[in-house]
Fold these 3 entries.
Entry 1:
Amino acid sequence: MLRARNATVSNHRATSTSASFGVPELRKNKDHGPTVSKTRIATVRNDCAIMKAFPTLVLLVVVCCSLLPENAHATVVESCGDTRALVPIEENVIEISNCEKGPCKLKRRTAVSINQKFTPSEDVKSLNTAVFAKIVGLPLPFIGVDGTSACQHLYAEDGETQVGCPLKAGVPVVYKRSFDVLEIYPKIPSMTIHWELQTKSGRAITCFEVPAKIV
């Protein structure tokens, strides 16, 4: 009888001890288990949200790029002062290679290209080029460019199809020309390039100026 009671007490103690040690373990699992699960669920949800938003972000980038103006890389140029051209300066889109804003650096032993898009407001039979550098107020013509015909350098709006002269009113054209900066040119720290397209009679059709230097 005594042994049975002692066994009962012992079993009760063992059960109590087991329970007392088991509860904290259950609480630990109870406390931390759901927390980890919630964190994982939140991470998965965030990943899903990012994946869903990614196509929208790509679309926004594409739209923003498409809204950029066509002359985003155009060179900033100036009007020709007293020279009044048929096509106003603000209706020209001019790109000078390696120069978005003056002073443009003209490196010797290299070639400089100029693309100029404009739309004449009236018919033009022919075009000549008048190009010179103003250094300390003195005009020095660009050899091989100044006084030459511009007709062979005129293209359609696509910049690929050569159209030449005459020009039609309201039809956009692209003038494409390049010139060499010769090694014999001295280094000039400051000058202004005057670039004009004019008729045989000397009437200015387009004209722009840009500060530059020869390096």
Entry 2:
Amino acid sequence: WGLTVLMWPAEEFLRVTKQYLPHLARLCLISTFLEDGIRMWFQWNEQRDYIEATWSCGYFLATCFVLLNLIGQLGGCVLILSRNFVQYACFGLFGIIALQTVAYSILWDLKFLMRNLALGGGLLLLLAESRSEGKSMFAGVPSMGESSPKQYMQLGGRVLLVLMFMTLLHFDFNFFSSAYFPNSSTDFLFVLLFFFFFFKSVKKTVKKPLFGFFVFCF
């Protein structure tokens, strides 16, 4: 009886807000692209000068780079939120991630690289959600009877999205053990949360023998 009393407000909340939650979920997944596109507008000169100085590509190409980032990110966000050409918008944002990874030398910065991988995970969830014919309540939440490709896209998206937690960690490097250790109790909690969500995502998607293989590897 007590559990029923607690579940009733949650069910009532979902009933009232279910038509808004999918839009809110998509907005959360693309919020970084939206913020970055707006920042390109307000920091136009700084971004252009940085690219021009870093790559010595000239004023015109640097301007084209900033313009491509601005239009690509804001345009992709508008298409995803309006549910028009979602797959093309996701592919375009994947291209923006790849372009920024090279242009800003993100490959050599572990935290920014994990951030970009997490952004790619969010796009994978949106891409998987757009492939379904029926309407789901949340972007990236599986429904009954879905195909295996979509399930694995959702698995990859969830795992990559959890990497965003790893950008909040501060690691110390131990030369003798050649391993990284979290240097605070908060960081250790984030590590536990990462592995918890990782194994939950894998267990929901893959079959039991394959899940056992994942556990063995870790």
Entry 3:
Amino acid sequence: MNALTLSAKKRKAKVVKILDLMGKLQFAKKNVKKEQIVTSIHRGAEFQVLVCQLRYSRQTIRFCRFLRLSDQLGLNMLEGVGWGRYRYYGNGFETGDCGLEIDDPDGVDRGLWKCVVGYGDEQIMKVSGAILDGGEEEAPLAILRVEDVNGLNGTEVKLQCNANKPLDYCWFKDPRGVIYSVSEVLMEDEEGSYWYDGISLTMGDCGIRLKPVTEEMTGRWSCHVGSSRVSALEVSSYVNVRVSTSQIIGSVDTYCRFITPSGQAFSLDESVTSENAILGNYYSNPNHNPKKGFCSLVVRSVSSADIGQWICAGKIAGHTMEQYAAIEVSTESAGNPADLSTASIVGMALGGAVILVGAVGLGYYNYWRRVRKQVVAHCQWNQQQ
């Protein structure tokens, strides 16, 4: 056997080894399981356990949250910590367990929940989750809630049309008949004028971000969702969109605050209700949603200290400067507020409450309104009434 034949055999043997190694790597790659959230529900007469377990991941859970879809109750779960009837369930974040245990669950507790799991390190954070149905009977596919949207011409707006089931697809149609099909692959780094907004379709998140919006987009939009896991029929709903060139159009960005005539200042949002009123007297008006552009306050029991000039202030989305307005609360029946008797003060406020709806506009303005036996001052984020 000459040296040339021996060399050829060695090369052939080396190639065979390389091909064998490549085959093993491809086999191993095919058998690598993808990171996923595996859900389970355990029911009892006096308890209910919801579990979202992160599997096939080398990352550690950084946060674990549950959202009750019926009323948007949110719970941030921590190992070994509980709040009343709700507490963390599992063997710890390091094992991939994100769980919620509920004692004496009521009707809403046995409904739909969403878990949100964040995992990763200081450089990269991933977010995933799932929808869990705590009811004994499976609910049909439905769109949970849709809110009207106000926006400024040339800026960005977001439309949400979230569902109660994992989705296969989601799309929107504007008043002109233009169709926008969205999914997780349609991210902001892609070219275009609209992108997906949400965590994932599997979590029921159907959302779209549009930029820039124009006045031609004003009108009634429709949103459509489908889930083959539930039904071949898709479900749809409508979203009213208003786009204007006026800065008065817009939503409250960061906060809403008031200053009383006496100089007392406080902030509030929809979480401040009549049950936890500030100073036992001031709370957010439940009939005016801040997300729809309202900064609204209810004064439960009117006193002479509430008569005079109020200041409301806040941030409008897309603007760095705080906007504010003055609201004059006065009464036709009294010359000097200090001379008001308790009876006359109560008589001025129909039902014993003064409603102050704050405005954030282009500048500073006063809006006066006198109503017999009632004191009401109105301004609004999106239009002057």
